What does this fold into?
Amino acid sequence: MSAAETPHQRSRAAFALRRFLPLALLAAGLAAFFALRLDRYLSLSVLADNREALLAWVERSGALAPLAFVAVYALATATSVPGGAVLTIAGGFLFGTVLGTVYAVIGATIGATAVFLAARTALGEPLRARAGPWLRKMEAGFRENATSYLLVLRLVPLFPFWLVNLVPAFLGVPFSVYVATTFIGIIPGTAVYSSVGNGLGALVEAGRMPDLGLVTRPEILGPLVALAALSLVPVGYKWLKARRARG
It folds into this structure.
């Protein structure tokens, strides 16, 4: 640090460091996940091989088991670790379809919220401060229909979960809207994987493994797309209303 720096400059430097610290910690967590080769344990084969031990642990642990599961899910989501589908299947296997869905949705929402807050603190405000007119216009349009757009992004499993966690932070989406749409929007897809996990034991006994891409099958993707289209109805209504007002 230069001796010529003023207290104000040092204060600004310290603030900038604190601003980036949460995002840096999440990135470090992701790097540690791969450095320690923990990805070896986040697989269906490991889950199937250890299913009896895991079920016994859940029975012994009582209320601690769902708390631990939610914490692990939240941490995995916050650090953008790949393998959310495996964790959701594990939740259905360990706790049943309904409770597995509830715990996974809570964990995912907590983790996604951590990413949103970290990204907004580190990059959101600086980007908006330097944004040109086109980005401001895009931000205004997105924020006006944030609920509808975010529900579409959450319901249709064609967009990377980590990306949908980050983009709203850069576009100034209100915190409450982000949390609510994340919680509601991920319920259908989570329930699908959780129900698969609930039948994991029978699948393993039959010598089969779940298909992680099942949510993209037409019979499952179709209803999700329909829900997404329904969430866009308010956007269409606003557009028609504005067009009639102009004409």
In short: The chain has a mean pLDDT of 82.
